[in-house]
Amino acid sequence: MRTFIVLLGPPGAGKGTQAQIVAETLQLAHISSGDLFRENLKGQTELGKQAQDFINRGELVPDDLTIAMVRDRLQRPDCAQGALLDGFPRTPAQADALTEMLADLDGKVVCVPCINVPSEVLVERLGGRWTCRAQGHVYHQLYNPPKETGKCDIDGSELYQRDDDKPETVANRIRVYLAQTSPLIEYYQKRGLLAEIDGTQEISAVTADLLAAIRKD
Ligand code: AP5
């Protein structure tokens, strides 16, 4: 049976930062729905064009487009053992669709860590975030700075600030999370899969708590 981990948490909680470390440690594929959308935006694909306005406004891309994109991604060979899902599902309809998709793939969700961080900290984190163009490695100008300003430590590519990290868009993303995604906390709690993680700690301490929660299951 393939094992899947769903990482929940508001924008800026540290999902991407942690997913890269945890997926590598557990040798699982890292699937970020946000990264998949950004690749489509960059390539100006039909999906990218359809998703662009939603992303720029800090709203969710409609479920049908998002589910089809993730279904397609899960077919790739790197998901043979399972995957760490970062940013998907984000609505109960997406969560139901995931359960169906995994049943077809002989897989199931085994753990859903939710990284908790208060809203005021999220705004500060996203305001100082720098992301690498090549592979989406994430830095923060104060909390996790690159060795060389503007350059990724891992692949040397240019660092940039995301368009949807503008303060007004961040505020909307947090509202959208609370209204549309936070119901998934109860959804997975009822299924006995939720693990609450304190995301205000240092990055390495959050990683340790995540790995402990995942290995317990
Ligand atoms: P997406 O890219 O998924 O954005 P998000 O969920 O808003 O999450 P972020 O990437 O902003 O934050 P993160 O939690 O990964 O934090 P990070 O590790 O970078 O989605 C973007 C858009 O795509 C959505 O708004 C939507 O439009 C669309 N979309 C995506 N998925 C969708 C779906 N399923 N359905 C519909 N639409 C969808 O960390 C943030 C900063 O904090 C960094 O600078 C980092 O260095 C720093 N940091 C991390 N951890 C710590 C720590 N412990 N202490 C101090 N600083 C830290």
Most strands sheet: 5 strands, parallel
Count the strands? 8
Shape: globular
**Total of helices:** 9
Assign the structural class, choosing from mainly alpha, mainly beta, alpha/beta, alpha+beta, or little secondary structure.
Answer: alpha/beta
Please name the defining characteristics of this protein:
five-stranded parallel β-sheet; three-stranded antiparallel β-sheet; 9 helices; alpha/beta; 217 residues; binds BIS(adenosine)-5'-pentaphosphate
Describe the structure.
The protein is an alpha/beta fold. The chain is built from 9 helices and 8 strands. A 5-stranded parallel sheet has the order 2-3-1-4-8, with helices on both faces. A hairpin with a 5-residue loop joins strand 5 and strand 6 (138-140). Bound molecules: BIS(adenosine)-5'-pentaphosphate. BIS(adenosine)-5'-pentaphosphate binds at residues 9, 11-17, 33-34, 37, 54-55, 58-61, 66, 87-88, 90, 94, 125-126, 128-129, 138-140, 143-144, 164, 173, 199, 202-203, 206.
What can be said about this structure in brief?
By secondary structure, this protein is an alpha/beta fold. The protein has helices spanning 15-26, 33-42, 46-57, 63-74, 92-104, 119-127, 167-181, 183-190, 203-216, and strands spanning 2-7, 29-32, 82-86, 107-116, 129-132, 138-140, 159-160, 194-198.
Write the layout of secondary structure elements.
Elements: E1 2-7, H1 15-26, E2 29-32, H2 33-42, H3 46-57, H4 63-74, E3 82-86, H5 92-104, E4 107-116, H6 119-127, E5 129-132, E6 138-140, E7 159-160, H7 167-181, H8 183-190, E8 194-198, H9 203-216
Parallel strand pairs: 1-3, 1-4, 2-3, 4-8
Antiparallel strand pairs: 5-6, 5-7
Helix pairs in contact: 1-9, 2-3, 4-5, 6-7
Bound molecules: BIS(adenosine)-5'-pentaphosphate.
